[in-house]
Specification:
Blueprint lengths: L5 E10 L4 E3 H5 L6 H8 L3 E3 L7 H15 L9 E5 L10 H9 L6 E4 L5 H14 L6 E8 L9 H4 L4 E11 L3 E9 L7 E2 L11 H5 L6 E2 L1 H20 L11 E4 L4 H11 L10 H4 L4 H13 L8 E8 L3 E8 L3
Parallel strand pairs: 4-5, 4-6, 11-12
Antiparallel strand pairs: 1-7, 2-3, 6-7, 8-13, 9-10, 12-13
Bound molecules: acetyl coenzyme *A (ACO).
Amino acid sequence: MCESKKAGIIGLGMYLPDNVLTNKELEKMVDTTDEWIFTRTGIKERRIARNDEATSDMAVNAAREALKDAYLKPEDIDLIIVATITPDMFFPATACLVQEKLGARLVPAFDISVACSGFIYGLAIASQFISSGTYKHALVVAAEKLSAITDWSDRSTCVLFGDGAGAAVLGPVDEGGILSTHLGADGGKGDLIKLPAGGSRIPATKETIEGRLHFIKMNGSELFKHAVKIMADAALGATQPLGLKAEDIKLVIPHQANIRILNAAAKRMGLKQNQIYLNLERYGNMSAASSAVALVEAVKKGLIKKGDKIVLDAFGGGLTWGAMVIEWSK
Ligand code: ACO
């Protein structure tokens, strides 16, 4: 047991596949235009993993960078959590594959499936083990190969998603760290975005494959309506208990689903444009990896400094949502 302390992020890493798929290229695949995609979503291009590159491969690359950034070795890690809806396979958990590939000790390793809110849920779970003193260092990786579950003949979804991974190492910190967390879920709205077949309800058959039921199905306009309120309410759920106002927040790192959702949610939260970090133009929606990669980029660009208060904010399939206030401690 370690001494009870606040948990903070002490290392960050990310990985994005080299292959870029532009809107122009999508114009040749489905009945769409660069103009429609960009004005309706804010996305210009996204990364697509190689055929031989699975979620665990991307996760390990991001994890190695995060460990280096934390000045730690794989054997220093006491817990591994991978947030993903595109695991290499149902089981073993992708976190177990990551443990093996990293050469970590035989520490607990498990996946969480809460779609785009996964990075925040993962940080929230890991932080409990650290602040309780149970573990010293936890690795949380958000990694997705959404291209593997995207229907490339469905223009209403295939223009939105991309692949990538972000990772954080958590440890005890003397100052700052994770100050508050707000998580939630509404299973009643689970039908708005789902992958219908391949589980125990509808196992894989010739018919499910022909029916394209192993790809993401989404009610985009309905999701859109809920997303704006959910993101604003989640952020308030994390900031209000601390008495924080919009002007106290250095940067909001949101899940990158759609620029119109983010602009509307930001307005509701009373945020200025320069208080929101955006990268969806370059990567699209990478589910759990979106907010993780956005955080890594914002830190690398020097937009977050020691003592700054930032808010991670996400919603996703489930529906699930999560927001977290972190006082940067590096
Ligand atoms: N290119 C051209 N036209 C298209 C395309 C496309 N790629 N996709 C849809 N359209 C058409 C539709 O067929 C429709 O045509 P119609 O009016 O003739 O029927 C028209 O565009 C409008 O369609 P809508 O779905 O109403 O368009 P909307 O403005 O709602 O934008 C979008 C669609 C971008 C999907 C939006 O609803 C959205 O972003 N929703 C939220 C999605 C989301 O957040 N998903 C992920 C959350 S969970 C997770 O991340 C895992």
